[in-house]
Every structure is written in structure tokens, then in C-alpha cells.
Amino acid sequence: MPSDHAEVQVRPGFEGDLEALTAIYNHYVRETAITFDTASFTPEERRPWLLSHPEDGPHRLMVATDQESQRILGYATSSPYRPKPAYVTSVETSVYVAPDAGRRGIGTLLYGALFRALAGEDVHRAYAGIAQPNEASTRLHERFGFRYVGTYGEVGRKFGRYWDVAWYEKRL
Questions:
Q1: C-alpha dist (Å) from residue 121 to 74, 115, 117, 147
Q2: 161-171 and 125-131: which strand pairing?
Q3: 71-124 pLDDT, tens per residue?
Q4: 3-class secondary structure per residue, the chain
Q5: pTM of the predicted model, to two decimals?
Q6: A Pfam family this protein belongs to (predicted)?
């Protein structure tokens, strides 16, 4: 895998990133079963999601940019796992990379930065749901110490078919 790491900067996301982040996410909404959202979003519709990821605390948004052009290449998040109070020390993590920026190690850079940021937070476990099949995402999560804990069979329907989701867990 070629590495352009020296040309990529990872930083916390901010409101000025909203349009580019929405465009990346909408690609996965329209073209893949990686997310189970089925309709594209406007940036305004995604604003509450962005604002729910401040620069500190357990719910983070890390953004990878090309250092020269400042174009956003991808992002990683840690979000609430479930809304009930006892889940407060668990997060669900995800990574989305621009479709033309894959296979450059950007997901690895993003997850590295995200887990470094979470190291000082009161987070006990990270969870990731991976729609199957997705070998690249499985490899990324295993590289970061996630372990497979089970599969929800045919839990989501998109593009006229049902999809399984494999669940992974990481101790923090």
C-alpha cells in the first residue's frame, strides 16, 4: 500500500468541514451498504451530527486533510453507543474515506488519532458495526485491537436485499 502520510494532516473537525464531510458520507449512502442510511443529507441536516462531536470529551470527530490542498480525505468519529445512561463509557466508532482516497492508509491515520484523543477520556469500550462483506474495514478494526463479538443476521435492508452486520469490540 503506498503511503502519503507525510502529505496528510489529521485534526479535529469543525463546522467549516460540514459540506465536504456530508459529500463523503452521501457517497456511502448512495453507493454502498456501509451505512444503513438510505437517503442523502444536506449539510444543514448533518449539522446536528457535526455539533455532537466537540473537540474534547468522548465523542470526537477527526478529519484527514491533504496538507497542500486542504481537501478533506476522510473522517473518523466516536459517538454514543446507546442513549441510556449506563452506556456512557461506551462509544461506537466509524471511519469514512473519500472514494478517491482509499488505500493510502488514511483510515489508519484517522483511527490512530481518534484513539490517542480518547486515551484520556472516561471510555471503557469502543464498538464498531461492519456491514458484511467489508474485508478492508474488518482488517482496519482488527489492526487496532478490535475483536469480533458476533453478527446480527440480515439486520438491515438496503438496495433490495438484507445485510448482516458483524460487531467488533475494543477495550480502551
A1: 23, 10, 8, 21
A2: antiparallel
A3: 999 999 999 999 999 999 999 999 999 999 888 899 999 999 999 999 999 999
A4: CCCCHHHEEEEECCHHHHHHHHHHHHHHHHHCCCCCCCCCCCHHHHHHHHHCCCCCCCCCEEEEEECCCCCEEEEEEEEECCCCHHHCCEEEEEEEECCCCCCCCHHHHHHHHHHHHHCCCCCCEEEEEEECCCHHHHHHHHHCCCEEEEEEEEEEEECCEEEEEEEEEEEC
A5: 0.93
A6: Acetyltransf_4
1: pLDDT strictly greater than 90: no
CA distance 82 to 65: 30
Specify the length of the chain in residues: 172
Phi, psi of 160 (to 5 degrees): 75, 15
Q: Which grid coordinates belong to 156?
A: 438491515
